[in-house]
Sequence to fold (230 residues):
Amino acid sequence: MANILLSERSPSNIQCHVGNDWVYNFIKRHKDLKTRYSQRYNYECAKCEDLKVIHEWFECVQTAIQQYRILDDDIYNFDETGFAMGLIATAKVVTRAETSGCPPLLQPGNQEWVTLIESVNSAGWALPPCIIFKGKAQLQAWYKNDTLLHDWRIEISPNGWTTDEIGMSWLQNLFIPYTNNQTKGKYWMLVLDGHGSHLTPQFDCTCTQNHIIPICMPPHCYGPCHTKAG
Fold:
């Protein structure tokens, strides 16, 4: 395209070619342009930014709200996030000018994976968190500072990830008890992603028995894209 434009603007209308550095020179001449590094973006996430998909999902949500007469204050969002304990992030530090390379930071030996389940009400208040540690049994040392954990829920799994059983435990022992007294209407809505532990028959039956309407987000809308979808 640059070659075509250059040829069309040539006085003799002959075929012309731009030089090797024409892009850099073009950017220098236009102060409103600058270069940036591109960022990888998951194809499945990009597909779910299709306005048609998003519009249909919101129509589904609106239909459920009208059908069950769900009040705005009875809508909840539920998601997990994972993090590695003891993982040091890269930081900018001050060093001697003669120091070469990047200064090392001592990495703690504990890099176990921990998952946090969180739920927030549309009115702005949050349920107590549920933390999933890697292990086979809960340790008494975890509860030394019980003033911080009086309403937190602690679960364990072989790898620190959520499971079908933990998903059910969270629903029965945390979400339902804490929202029963807060619900203003007969039904309330729980918006969640499509993780396997949220789509079990037991999870669905328990929601039905307690007048909870679960609504799954479109696939791949969570993870790197969940801030856009939420």
